[in-house]
């Protein structure tokens, strides 16, 4: 088994009138990518700040290589941090950016050039090394931003939305970059709202909401637990479902999504069952725009999880 690089145990932190983290426990091992998923305000960024040693917990602990990054220099030096915003100098070249950041990370002498050359190769930017940052595409800047956080060869890389705002081709290149870092033994924890991205590159996924870690496990295992052998059905209505239609959809095992006209969940049975579902919805005044069948993914797992949470909240109230 790979060594544990990050160990979070029962982490809790409250701000005025709000509990940002509640009893969160999570490990990340060397050579592993873990995706942190959840809605805005779930506590993901607060958790990353605690891991980075920028936020003190009320209770619980965060250990990086067995040490607390809040007060241990060796733990902080084992971290690479890549923010969502591009944290580079716009009027410097790609190479000069990395040179400056390598020095700031504590590298000296010949180690600087070696680290810069390795980073440019890793980001597939050798041919653009002498281009000013503003002349690079958004995807190139993103890749440079990521490798800038790896110049000192950290054991754990933290990323916040590493592909936000880039096109599909750039996104795939960033995926390759992160997988290469993982294959070299780096532990990676990243925040994303992109369920397809998480499924494509993460070994494990962890879902957060309201400061709590609700569910975590291997990507394949989470999907199997949520859907079994069923496909994922997506029902799109012309208008928001009325109460009668909501009951029909929930009875069929479907959950509401962020878009009030769209419901999704595991669909069992055959096409005759789908036809009956459509007919039943029409009889209660819900007009169907489309019913799609697709392979299940993490988005469907999340919808089921949020639906279950909403049900538990409603019961408690």
Please describe what this structure looks like.
The protein is an alpha/beta fold. It is built from eleven helices and 13 strands. The strands form three sheets. Strands 5-6-7-3-8-9 form a six-stranded mixed beta sheet, sandwiched between helices. A four-stranded antiparallel beta sheet has the order 11-12-10-13, with helices on both faces. Strand 6 (156-160), helix 6 (168-183) and strand 7 (187-191) form a beta-alpha-beta unit. The mean pLDDT is 92.
Task: Pick out its properties.
Rossmann fold; 11 helices; four-stranded antiparallel sheet; 317 residues; alpha/beta; six-stranded mixed sheet; Alpha-Beta Plaits
Summarize the structure.
By secondary structure, the chain is of the alpha/beta class. It has helices spanning 44-51, 73-77, 94-104, 110-122, 138-148, 168-183, 195-201, 219-227, 243-251, 271-283, 298-316, and strands spanning 4-15, 18-29, 33-37, 59-64, 79-82, 156-160, 187-191, 204-209, 212-218, 231-237, 255-256, 262-267, 288-294. It contains 11 helices and 13 strands.
